[in-house]
Amino acid sequence: MTDESPDAKGKGKATDSAATSSQDTQDTHDTQDIYQLASPTTGQFHRQTSSFRSLITSNPTSLFPPERDRYVLYINYCCPWAHRTNIVLHLKGLTSLIQTVVMDYELSPEGWYYTGRLGTAPQDPLYGFTHHKQLYLKADPTYNKRYTVPVLWDKKRETIVNNESSEIIRILYEAFDDFIPSHLREETKRKDGGGLLPEKLRGDIEKMNEWVYEKINNGVYKAGFATTQEAYEEHVFPLFEGLDRIEAHLKEKGTPYLFGERITEADIRLYPTIVRFDAAYHHAFRCNLKMIRYGYPKIHLWLRRLYWDKGPDNTNGGAFGSKTTKFDHIKKGYASALRNAIVPAGPVPDIMPWD
What we know:
Layout: E1 71-76, H1 80-91, E2 99-103, E3 107-108, E4 111-112, H2 132-139, E5 151-154, E6 159-162, H3 165-174, H4 186-190, H5 199-217, H6 219-224, H7 229-253, H8 265-284, H9 292-295, H10 297-308, H11 327-337
Parallel strand pairs: 1-2
Antiparallel strand pairs: 1-5, 3-4, 5-6
């Protein structure tokens, strides 16, 4: 990963390529009509490219060095792209170093906003903003794209560091390791072949990331936001082909996680989609060929293991569970996204027991 390079305004909107294996992995809800995310001519869903791509590094020339209580992570609990960043925040033990601001699960005509419902923030605690749009315009008054989550914000420079989830999680892997206990640091984990992105597994993980993003992470959206039968069918069947492939991979590996005995980036990136599948995508997005709990036994076991594990070794006390996975926000959020005042009661339970 290359260090950040600010734009001409010096506000940290990077022109570097903090490259990861897939692109555009951010929430797509817009201030425009949500149904217009699909092309009016083809019915195809298209995802926006992230705009702020700077990094936090210890490089002496870095505009964004790692510091305690300097950065803020803006999220909501409905969004799967924001969810992955919140998981890493908890997995790495960074919740006391990086402030988290949680917005409402629902979109207003002006985008994500603050209400105080279900334990969310009543307003932006830094600036008193009522809408996420205001934060983007503070960073760049000329910004005219969607006001997405997650956002990693720098309180000192008062600008957005990064709004690309796949890059934010990699920033969090190591940038703040000097501030956390030794056993949570990537350098320590790598000594015995572990870490969230082990070098020996990096190629395989990035290959999986690429097709998982295309067929599954983004696949549910391409099926769910399609506005023609042709566009829907073009994506719903590849989605389930992707799930079949994950099921076969887990069966062949015979390990608790996608790449062995330890959690890696591949697990982090797949989990937010799978944990939302039965509760939201199956009905709200018409991804209803199968449910995870009944159609994919290996994926279902993998999912429950991640969600219910609250031990210190694998999940640092439950980074995937109820600390970061909020089914009430998920169900209400997706119902709202489809302009439905009725929130589905099921499935019951939201997630099955581990055993």
